[in-house]
Amino acid sequence: MLRVISIVTILGFSFDQDDEKFNPAETAKKFLEDLLNGQEEDAYNLCADHLKTPDAKEKFSGFIKKVNEQLGKLVEIVNLEEQKFNLKESNFRVILHCRFERFLADFIIYFDKKNMIHGFETANPDMDRFHKIPAYADKDKFFEDEVAVGEVSEGNYLTGYLTYPDPEKLKDTKMTGPYPILILVSGAGPYDYDHSVGPNKMFKDIAYGLSSKGIAVLRYSNRLRSDPKIQGKYTIKELYTDDAVNAVKTIVSKSAQILEEDNIQLDTKRIFILGHAHAGSMIPKIAEAVSGSGLKDADVRGYIIMSGIAQPLEDTTLKEISARFNEDGKMDDTESALYTELSKKVANAKSKDLNDKFASDQLPFDIPAVFWLSLQGYNPTEAAASMNKPLLLLHAQRDVLAEKDFATWKKHLSNSTYTLVKPYETLNRFFIAGQGKIVEAEFGIPGNVSEEVIKDIAEWILK
Hints:
Blueprint: H1 24-36, H2 40-44, H3 54-70, E1 74-84, E2 92-100, E3 104-111, E4 117-123, E5 142-151, E6 156-165, E7 179-185, E8 196-197, E9 200-201, H4 202-211, E10 216-220, H5 223-226, H6 236-262, E11 266-276, H7 278-281, H8 283-291, E12 300-306, H9 313-325, H10 333-350, H11 369-375, H12 380-385, E13 391-396, H13 402-413, E14 419-424, H14 451-462
Parallel strand pairs: 7-10, 7-11, 11-12, 12-13, 13-14
Antiparallel strand pairs: 1-2, 2-3, 3-4, 5-6, 6-10, 8-9
């Protein structure tokens, strides 16, 4: 299959025109469009004579082929930036922020001191510029504060953000508080507090959407992203449950501060916790930890599982890699070798002989043995079925594992009086709408969490 990678190509170009008429942004834009739209001769004509060689043309052709295969067609140049600097070869450059069919990329075109194109390269873009606040969110209706989840004095905390309603702006809805609270927990991976994947920010969309509807939302960074000391020695406890309990404690103290300083009341007796993907699978563990934490000033009323993984994580990992490598219908030799190696590591993670001394490099993604040991014997769907708290199960169906996972969740939870189950046929694992077969490159296309999901969560919490 073809995967999106960062292509770096430095070539020399010459563009000969009068200084007074020279427009670097338009020149850069024309050059890129000519190059990608099949007008290669026009692009060659912008080159100095020594770059009109067969070797240079071959590099051009190879570059165009890689872009078309990996990124797809150029959809639009979102914007351009001109930057001046003082180097021996170049005195300024133009950065073109581009959106392609399958991904986003920045093209950087360099100009020398004679206003000639000196070279170009592609780079991974600043994804934040591509994310747009969803139309269903109104930033005038809520406040947003940075918070620390965990022990600040010991430096053992995670960066988070709390969005909470502005009563003055919600008067027309008759929602004057106290406001319920939702805590968002991300899955296994170094996710930031927005759950950023490419240009998309799932948790930020959820927080802004729900706080516009009268619900306070706390989101925080995953410990794998924020705490380098955890590497090599984390279990379910360190990765999920401890931080979820700390998040509840943070909400209690922050709510008291907000009440005292702003006279806005958050309802710490109506807290809900949402887990996405593998964190969704860990909701029963989180509920158990919260229940046993002895918190007196907080009451977690219910839990939400978003596209929770019903199968063992190691099996899920293997199936996802297989699907990714087979996007074009077959694995090449390199992919086949990687898949075989991962299969052996998955077998090690499932082995009864696994112990905490087992080398991490012999396990999936070098995740430590203690983590895999903490998962052995755990069945998330059976554990969820025994929960005595209200549970909302939301499942995105446009996903490699969705069909089997959803059927398993539904089988175990269908008889529960506490559970509401809802599938979304057109949404991917980040609850963004799409069409057709899901491919990895889709996660690089800007989008927002579906408004339907925001409405469903809000209605369930506020009922």
